[in-house]
Design brief:
Chain lengths: 65, 132
């Protein structure tokens, strides 16, 4: 009886100590997975329309491209 | 009589000086305001030379960048001039297509980078400067 009580006490003391480092790691992982290419995430039809617009802008502004 | 003549001469000299100063001050302002196309064409020529020299290149965001991190004053001014004009175009294109200006810039880079002549540098998104 006494032995099982002390085991429970030890477990109660240890659990937060184990959980704390796990919680601290989570945000670090999120930061590493940052989106790089916005263009690639566009819907296909939006991308086609954007490509057409961009192409005409490039040919109409030879001083800038 | 002599005094009057001298002071007239002096006044004429001052007037001429004032005119010269006015012309000097007014000329650059007129050039900058009335002909942005000429300024852009000059900037384009400077940038093309810098691209050929390997100091300036196209980036994955659709803007020009410095291959070595920086360049001389004339090249920097030219790059800023072109990038400013491009940003305006990306903003208006993005508004038309219903996307962000960043997406429009990336779309422009997709079109520009394949056209880069061999030997010049480009920097893909999230990558480093690469010689084509």
């Amino acid at each position: 009886m006494n032995a099982s009580r002390s085991t429970a006490l030890v477990a109660a003391l240890l659990l937060p100590a184990l959980a704390a480092p796990l919680g601290a790691c989570t945000p670090t992982v999120k930061v590493e997975v940052a989106p790089i290419n916005i263009y690639a995430k566009l819907d296909a039809d939006v991308r086609v329309r954007l490509d057409k617009e961009v192409q005409s802008v490039i040919t109409q502004n030879p001083n800038l491209f | 009589m002599f005094d009057v003549l001298q002071s007239r001469k002096f006044a004429a000299k001052r007037l001429a000086g004032a005119f010269a100063a006015f012309a000097f001050l007014a000329t650059p302002a007129v050039v900058a305001v009335s002909t942005p196309a000429v300024a852009q064409a000059n900037a384009k020529a400077t940038v093309d030379a810098a691209k050929a020299a390997g100091t300036v290149g196209e980036q994955g965001d659709g803007l020009l960048g410095f291959v070595n991190g920086s360049a001389d004053a004339a090249t920097t001014a030219a790059v800023n001039e072109i990038n400013m004009g491009r940003r305006k175009l990306y903003a208006s294109t993005a508004a038309k297509a219903g996307v962000t200006p960043e997406a429009a810039g990336e779309a422009a880079a997709q079109a520009l980078i394949p056209k880069i002549p061999a030997g010049q540098y480009y920097k893909p998104l999230g990558g480093s400067w690469t010689k084509k």
